Predict the 3D structure of the following.
Amino acid sequence: MSINGRPTADNKLVSGFVPSTHRKNPLLSLSTSDTNEPIYDDIGSYPLPEGTSREWLKEAFAELSTSTRREAKAEALYNMIADAMWQKINAGVELPNYPQFQDMLSQFSDPIMDDKKVEAPLLIREEEARIVELEAIEGLAARYRADKGERLKLRICVTGPIELYYSQFRPPVYLDILLNIAKSVGRFIKHSIEQARNYEVRCVSIDEPSMGLDPRIEEEGVIKALETASLFAFQKGIDTQIHLHSPIFYELVCQVKGISVIGVESAANPALLNLIDKNQLENYDKFLRVGVSRTDILSMAAEYDERHHTRAFSDRAILEAIIGEYNSPERVKRRLEHAYSIFDERIRYAGPDCGLKSFPAQELAFMVLKNTADGIRAFRAGN
């Protein structure tokens, strides 16, 4: 439900979903007993609460950027972000990414393209390179620290320089412009790490879904841009992932010193693992993040509907059944076992293939995260 487009707290309880108003113990995350075992993280995006519109979301974020104090919408937005973060923690995500409700392109391109926020064309000033979602979870992180005696460990995602360039410019590619975008991406990372008080950034993800699918930038430009964007995290000894939709050009990424982990969406398409040579990873000392739960809800629903003659999006129970079938803990466990049989200790992270924004309800996204946690826990118990 909503009041004037704003989210309310009367979330329904299904399949273990724990909204903030019903939470008893918010500290339910898994703990790794062996540093060689994969760390459970998530990609970032998450469904909006029921009754919250994209229009309301846009207005709330705009209010944050234009007002010197938090108005009503901005306050509700902070609460919405914090609640989604608690859901990820409650589901068992060990290294949760801030809930990314914004569009992955405009979240970063808008401030980079704003003349009032840059010191040179497409080079954002350091103080303007804010990820406001991290500011929204500082209070949550303070509670976590008080309860646990340690800072909340986070993963952050930033849209990569190549993806941002493609979204704004046509060919040809000008390297000086690309590198300014890359420096801006690096400043978002730097600001997030340096401004943290009660949380600790343990992993950075540079999201480059189009890389390998669009050949407009030559290899040398790709390497320079990714090196520039990942430099600060690398200097701080923080793992930097690259999130790809296709690993066809993973060997190119291997040449980027600042990127240590290559993401593979292997739950929906296990054959992608066959494109990667373990020896190549070892030669460059690179690791993998493997997908062990599917996030392509539209494809899963279409497959299920065809087999069962159902209409998944007209019935919440059918959607729950789909998640239970395609992302059962046992299936998650088998996917991780399969990946481990090929790459073993070269797997450093595991989690859902991609973000969960396309799921029609937070309760369903929570089920995916919870089943993934149970599957990873079962894998660890058997190892």
